Amino acid sequence: MSGPAPTPEEAAARADALRRASAVLTIDLAAIVENWRTLSALAAPAECAAVVKADAYGLGVERVAPALWRAGALTFFVAHLNEGTRLRALLPDAVIYVLNGLMPGTAQALAADRLRPVLGSVPEISDWSDFCRAEGKRHPAAIHVDTGMERLGLALEDAVRLSDNRRLLGFEPSLLMSHLACADTPGHPLTGRQLKIFTDVARRFPGIKASLANSAGTLCGRDFRFDLVRPGIFLYGGVAVSGVPPLKSVVRLDARVLQVRDVERGATVGYGAAERVKRRSRIATVALGYADGLFRAAGSTDARKGAQAIVAGTRCPLVGRVSMDLATLDVTDLPAGAVERGAMATFLGEGIGIDELAAKAGTIGYEVLTALGARHLRRYLGE
Question: 20 to 30 A Cα–Cα from 229, which one of 10, 219, 255, 368?
Answer without folding.
Answer: 368
